[in-house]
Structure formats: C-alpha cells, structure tokens
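User: Predict the structure for this protein chain, please.
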Amino acid sequence: MTESIKMDRINHLLVIGGTGMLSQAVLTLAEHSDAISIVARTRKSLDSLGSRLLDSAVVYNPIQIDYQSAALLEKALQAAIESYGPIDLVVAWIHSNAPDVPLIVASIAAEKSLAVDFFHVLGSSSADPQSVPNPIELRLREIPALIYHKVILGFVIEGGDSRWLTNQEISRGVIDAVSANAPEHVVGVIRPLSMRP
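Assistant: Here is the predicted structure, written as structure tokens:
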C-alpha cells in the first residue's frame, strides 16, 4: 500500500488497535506523520510494527498497556502529548468490551488540541438499522475540538457468497476514509444484512 494518497501532514498520530489488521494502514499513515503513538497490549506486536517503521522518518512511540485500564491509558496518553505534542489524528479500533475507552481517548486527545480528527473503526453490526443509537457515539460527537468520523467495516459479496474483509482491504478502506475525511465511510458493503457472513 505504497501509492500516494492526498492527506495533510500529521504532526502526532494516535492509533489504538493498530498492530494487527490495521498495520498496513498504520504504515501508510506513518509516511505522512511526524510522530506516531501506538497503543497495544503486547510488546511483541509493538516491536513487530516498529521493525517495519525502521526506514521511516516518523518518531515511533510504542505504548504497551491494556487499554481497559483507564488510569494507565490516561497517564500514557498524557505522557505522549507532553513528549510529541497535541494529537491531531486518532484511528481507534476498540473492542466492544471496553465501551468507555473511545471517550477517554477522545477527551484526552481533544483537551490540548484546536481540532482532532477521530476515526472510529466499527464492525458491520453498528450499521444495523434495528440497533439503538450508540450513546458513546453521541457523546463523542459532543466533545469540543473533536471531529468525529465513523468507519464501518462491512463485508464483500462475490457471486452468490459473502466473506469478511481481508486485513489488506480493511487497511485500504481506513486509508480511504482518512483521505476522504467524510463523516462516515463504509468499507465493503453492509447491505443486505442477511448476507453478513
């Protein structure tokens, strides 16, 4: 994923959940960033991503913590901002078992910034018209200085069958979302729901 993309220079990029399926997106975003802070649970995944950034000019700030610990997360993000400046772009793939984490991340990122783009990566179930409005999303949209973007990961229909997106398709979709800077971006398709794999 080395093709050029249209994107403003990113001073400080924060990625939550970027060492796995989003790693290609992180590598592409790193080409447009001065500093990148990555939150992950394991040192191995952070080191693996870091080795792929060695030839990059980006300053790499690996943050090894379990983001479900709010106190540790807040402390680590405050330290990252003190060291590398205000965060101006967040890409957050946060599991549903940590529902308050997006609010913590967004609040800290927006606190010291004039404007921070927050790209919230969500699974296809978030597009279900039967689901109730997400109260976290509503609260995120109310944070001053935060520009909220929703990225919905759908699926692919091939012939009469469907499949989940590959990691490469997910990363490409996230890069497309950041480049387009739209309020909502769907990667793949989300309809018909009956075709979800």
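Strands lie at 10-16, 33-40, 59-64, 89-93, 116-123, 146-153, 155-158, 161-164, 184-187.
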